[in-house]
Amino acid sequence: MLRDHKPHDHRPTSAPLGRRTVASAGDGGQPDGPSLPARLEGLGDDERRQLVLRTVREHTATVLGYDSATAIPAERGFLDLGIDSLTAVELRNRLKTDTGLPLPATLVFDHPDATRLARHLAEALAANDAAGAPGDADADPRRGAHGAAAPAAAPGADASGVSGHLQSADADELFDFIDREFGSD
After folding, report:
1. Interior CA angle at 96 toward 95 and 99, to 5°?
2. Over the stretch 79-124, which tens digit does the pLDDT of each residue have?
3. Which residues 6+ apart lie within 8 Å of 67 measured at CB?
4. Pairwise CA distance, residues 126 & 120, whole Å
5. Conformation bin of residue 124: beta by default, left when phi > 0, alpha when psi is -120 to 50
6. Short-list 68, 70, 88, CA closest to 78
7. Which of 28-37, 99-108, 127-136 has the highest mean pLDDT?
8. Helix/strand/coil (H, E, C) string of the chain?
9. Which of 176, 175, 179, 180 is nearest to 155 (CA)?
10. What is the pLDDT of residues 40-59, one digit of tens each?
11. How far is CA 103 from CA 1, 12, 51, 72, 123, in A?
């Protein structure tokens, strides 16, 4: 079964100075304190951009096992830093939790460095603010009560709805979808 597959880690075997050798499992991406939208309240545009960039760098440092966000150059590509598909999903999940935004699994590939990703998140958060949309995951219409995933679309249902659900799905939801569609054998 795919869930039991352990991917080979292609990261270097010797860790650079100041880097932990095991990425922090942490608390599943829960921020310590207020969410990013709450921390952005009342800040000017420059301060907002700096805070979003710092947040992206902090989460990137955490998933890569670095002790500090300063280890993550703002302009260096995520792939060059060692982000792979697994850590990309972990980074997306952490940012999704911190921002309350529905984010696609391809987030770090669509916005390939901390600066571009921070710009994207800042724009999305500003659009959310302008629309008066709540900045939490419970506002996602694909989610049911208590943030549980909404039922999968029935066969023949609108493909764009399924596509949207898959883009914002976490790893467990993707595996459940694969198991439902293709069997778990």
Report:
1. 75
2. 999 999 999 999 999 999 999 999 999 999 999 999 999 999 999 9
3. 18, 19, 20, 61
4. 10
5. alpha
6. 88
7. 99-108
8. CHHHCCCCCCCCCCCCCCECCCCCCCCCCCCCCCCHHHHHCCCCHHHHHHHHHHHHHHHHHHHHCECCHHHCCCCCEHHHHCCCHHHHHHHHHHHHHHHCCCCCCCHHHHCCEHHHHHHHHHHHHHHHHHHCCCCCHHHCCCECHHHCECCCCCCCCCHHHHHHHHHCCCHHHHHHHHHHHHCCC
9. 180
10. 888 988 999 999 999 999 99
11. 27, 29, 19, 21, 13
Burial grade of 84 (CB within 10 A; 0-12, 13-18, 19 or more)? middle
Tens-place pLDDT, residues 6-20: 444 444 444 443 433
Look-up: residue for tokens 């467990």? 172
- Give dist(CA 118, CA 129) in Å, integer: 16
Per the structure block, which two tokens stand in for 178? 């694969």
Q: Which amino acid is at 54?
A: R
SS (H, E, C) 58-87: HHHHHHHCECCHHHCCCCCEHHHHCCCHHH
Given the structure tokens 């880097």, which residue do they identify?
19
